[in-house]
Amino acid sequence: MIATKKGVNILDRGSQIHDMAEFQELLNFPPAPKLDLYGKLDPAKASPVELRGQEIFFGKGQCSTCHVPPYYTDNLAHDLHPERFYKPVLINGVMATADGPVKTFPLRGIKDSPPYFHDGRLLTLDDTVEFFNLILATKLTAQEKQDLIAFLRTL
User: Fold this and answer.
1) Using CA atoms, how far apart are residues 120 and 49, in angstroms rounded to an integer?
2) DSSP character at residue 120
3) What is the maximal distance between C-alpha atoms in the chain?
4) Which one-letter DSSP state was computed for residue 85?
5) Which of 101, 107, 94 is nearest to 77 (CA)?
6) Are 60 and 144 in contact (CB under 8 A)?
7) pLDDT tens digits, residue range 17-35?
8) What is the Cα–Cα distance from 50 to 43, expressed in whole angstroms?
9) How many angstroms separate the CA atoms of 101 and 99, rounded?
10) Rounded distance, CA 41 to CA 50, Å?
């Protein structure tokens, strides 16, 4: 039996997908009451842990290289070369190889949108911070990772 008889709605790229994309452009990020106009933490509203996390985000963690405030994205694609850490393998009939360039995801509202990374391979913010700690070789300590996660939750 064909998919449409089962109720699958195959979207027309020219009309339906374009309209959905335009609607998404209208949506704003969720409120982030601890951020100022420029996307940085307001020291009067943020905890010391969150402020330390912000320092890591803009410093040792190198996150702000691609995730630029106030929306925490540069709208560019970057090739992180994660294949450095594994050998190509067949998974569910698909060969897992190099990803190539991946568009920088905006981090505003990140706590409310798991799973993470372009393909959902990172289930939590902890997983995501650890992934980039390895990929970027930032050598964050356990405390620095927790501080960074606290900052990410404020976005």
Assistant:
1) 27
2) S
3) 62
4) G
5) 101
6) yes
7) 777 777 777 778 888 999 9
8) 9
9) 7
10) 8
Separation in Å, CA 6 to CA 2, 10, 35, 59, 100: 7, 11, 47, 52, 35
**Cβ–Cβ < 8 Å for 123, 115:** yes
| Whole-angstrom distance, CA of residue 152 vs CA of residue 155 | 5
Signed CA dihedral, 55, 29, 153, 130: sign only: negative
Residue type, 89: V
Tokens 């393909």 -> residue: 119
Alpha-carbon dihedral sign for residues 63, 71, 73, 125: positive
How far apart CA 154 and CA 50 sit, in angstroms, is 8
Q: For residue 114, is the peptide bond before it cis, meaning its omega torsion is within 30 degrees of 0?
A: no
pTM across the whole model: 0.79
| Residue-wise pLDDT tens digits, 53-67 | 999 999 999 999 999
